[in-house]
Amino acid sequence: MNLLVTNDDGIASPFLHELVAALLAAGHTVAVVAPKTEQSWTGAAKTRHRPVHATRLKSTPALPCPTWTVDGTPSDCVNIALAHLLPPELKPGAVLSGINLGLNASLGFIIASGTIAGAWEGALHGLPAIAFSQDLTTEVYERLKANHDIPDAELLVTLRHSAAHAARLAPSLIAATPPRAFVVHNVNFPLPCHADTEVRRTVPAQVVVPGLFSPANNDGTHRLIFRLGEDLSPASPLTDRTALAAGHISHSVLDYTRLGR
Question: Are β-strands 29-35 and 249-255 bridged in parallel, bridged antiparallel, or unpaired?
Answer without folding.
Answer: unpaired
